[in-house]
Amino acid sequence: MKPVIVVHGGAGRIFKEREDGSRSGVTRAALKGYGILKQGGSALDAVEEAVVLMEDDPHFNAGCGSVLNEKGEVEMDAIIMDGKNLSSGAVSAVKCIANPIKLARLVMEKTDHMLLTDQGALAFARAMGVPEVPGEKLITERSLERWKKNLEADSNPQEFQKDLGTVGAVAIDSAGNVACATSTGGLSNKRVGRVGDTACIGSGGYADNAIGATSTTGHGESIMKVVLARLTLYHMEQGKSPEEAATEALNSMETRVGGLGGVIVVSRSGDWAATFSTKQMPWAAVKDGQLQSGIHTGERDTQPVEKALSSIAS
């Protein structure tokens, strides 16, 4: 099997001045994951490391770029899933952890559970020796400004929810195993303890070697209502291509509950898609030594991996 990786940086609205940073972020993440796959690494390692890179990038609503809850704190959700045996690990409402996706993988591999939340997740992180970071280290000036703006009497928090930024990755490795990973800071000014779609298996992501893997982004409550990640794979089970399946699932979500979002998916045969119903979604994919990427509907820039790597290095 030829390895493939697809990543997204969140479906929503991306302001012009942030487009270059978002494009660069997803490109670097895809190349990082593909490098692991090309060396014979697992799909699980590839999606984890791709998401870690984006969690460390303040352009995205994950890790150090996360939006703030109603109290001005960062609370993050993440999930990872192995298509080989349907193992999954997730965390929700975690604070003071730089890379929630790493903690999610530890939940998958070191416990008999699938999801740990808030103080339980933090206690587990401490038991595993995961370093904590001061909460303020995860707060960017942009997130703080958005939080303050939403507190104003005449503000419309729903307007800011169009600017989402969840990150995710899906991959298939040379052994034919698929995996997915998704991480987010959630909704700006959300209630303390709110858990969105990302940490919920079948909503924020799903991976099954018999079908493929998918990671979602968009309005979390809408995604949960239709179980978007698993719905996309259901359509693939019915014979649809990744592109058709993602489009059908997104259309269903918009028709039934009025929700917008995005989906990245890779099939068990290595076909892939990056589809969204929002104005923009930064994405990047690597297959057969070719890097493809885009932000706007219909945009698809293509270049050899070697050229992309050299431009990043310079």
Question: What's the short story on this structure?
Answer:
Residues 294-314 are annotated as: Disordered. The protein is α+β, with helices and mostly antiparallel strands and 314 residues long. It is built from 10 helices and 13 strands.
Architecture overview:
The protein has helices spanning 16-38, 43-55, 100-110, 118-127, 141-151, 157-160, 220-226, 228-237, 242-257, 305-313, and strands at 4-8, 76-82, 87-94, 115-117, 167-172, 178-184, 205-208, 212-218, 261-267, 272-276, 280-287, 290-296, 301-304. With 314 residues, it is of the alpha+beta class. It has a single domain, classed as (Glycosyl)asparaginase (Glutamine Phosphoribosylpyrophosphate, subunit 1, domain 1), CATH 3.60.20. The strands form two sheets. Strands 4-3-2-6-5-1-11-12-13 form a nine-stranded mixed β-sheet. Strands 7-8-9-10 form a four-stranded antiparallel β-sheet. Helix 2 (43-55) runs antiparallel to helix 3 and helix 8 (228-237) packs across helix 9. It is globular. The two termini are 32 Å apart. The model has no long low-confidence stretch (mean pLDDT 94).
Return the structural class. alpha+beta
Please indicate the percent range of residues in DSSP E strands (runs of 2 or more): 15-25%
CATH level-1 class: Alpha Beta
Number of separate structural domains: 1
* Count of DSSP strands: 13
Layout of secondary structure:
Layout: E1 4-8, H1 16-38, H2 43-55, E2 76-82, E3 87-94, H3 100-110, E4 115-117, H4 118-127, H5 141-151, H6 157-160, E5 167-172, E6 178-184, E7 205-208, E8 212-218, H7 220-226, H8 228-237, H9 242-257, E9 261-267, E10 272-276, E11 280-287, E12 290-296, E13 301-304, H10 305-313
Parallel strand pairs: 3-4
Antiparallel strand pairs: 1-5, 1-11, 2-3, 2-6, 5-6, 7-8, 8-9, 9-10, 11-12, 12-13
Helix pairs in contact: 1-2, 1-10, 2-3, 7-9, 8-9
Catalytic activity: L-asparagine + H2O = L-aspartate + NH4(+); Cleavage of a beta-linked Asp residue from the N-terminus of a polypeptide
Region (Disordered): 294-314
Keywords: Autocatalytic cleavage, Hydrolase, Protease
